[in-house]
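subagent[fold] <- orchestrator: predict structure for attached chain, return tokens only, no commentary.
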Amino acid sequence: MRASLISLFTRNWPIKGAAIFLSVMLYVAVQLQQPVTTDFELGLNVQLPPGRTLQQKLPKIHAQISGKGSQVLRLRSLRGDVTRRMPDTLSTPTWTIRLEPSEVEAQLPKGADVRVLEIRPREITVALDSVGRKDVRIVPLITVVPESGQVLHGGISISPTIARLVGPDKNLAAIESVTTIPTEIANVAGAFTRTVPIDTTVLGIVRIAPRQVTVTGEMGAIAERSFGGIPVETGAGAATSFIITPARVSVAVRGPEQRVQALTRDSLRVVAHITSTAADGTSVGRLTVIAPPGITARAIPDSVTLRRRTRRG
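subagent[fold] -> orchestrator:
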């Protein structure tokens, strides 16, 4: 009886063994197609600005992932960190991070057919050392070189004009303003715009925002024009206390064509500044022309004589 049982199990054993093996493999294959949910642990990497330090250890991130068993099995080698960069100008002692499933999905192998169901913790508050902040003026170190026959209309403008600094209070106290990198703008015509970096080499661990400014200006053709019969004034206004010779002069102006053509006689003032006085009371006055911004002007002639009026008894 015993021999017959042994014979029953050993008869055609290669075929029976193969059948058992195939059954096991089929079972495994079916199980691998079943949905599976499991947790994975990831690290959190916070990239800090220079000079800032963490005040506590960062927690681990637990991600709950769901998918077919075969797909989840591929993730057993999932290792990596969720990375966040802290804003350079953050001055508060805490920073709250809200994690999104897409950040974990970015760590998954390409083509993985799984879903991130949950992230724990979803929000993390990072504790930092204390720093100060300060707003300072941006000084442009920019030179515009006009082409022949061109002139810059009214100077340049920069935007923004104020920068925010963040860093230790003792470092901020020594900084009153920042400058752009020395820049020359040439070979431009008409309206122009340039982006110029702020010079950060002197800031050390102090952070700044923005790190660059937008420079705008407008070039135009140069025009010249002459106005005759402009009355000469003294610094106090019309020269009622003096006899001025000549009492009226010509003024030659030069500047952007549109501005020059828009000028009128009322746009110009000629002021006499006494430079010397002779023994007979006659003074020599050097003439200065006050013109609108962007216009250069000179008086012809460039000086006059002044004699104080005598009072009649």
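orchestrator: received. Logging for downstream: The radius of gyration is 41 Å. Residues 33 and 68 are 5 Å apart (CA to CA).
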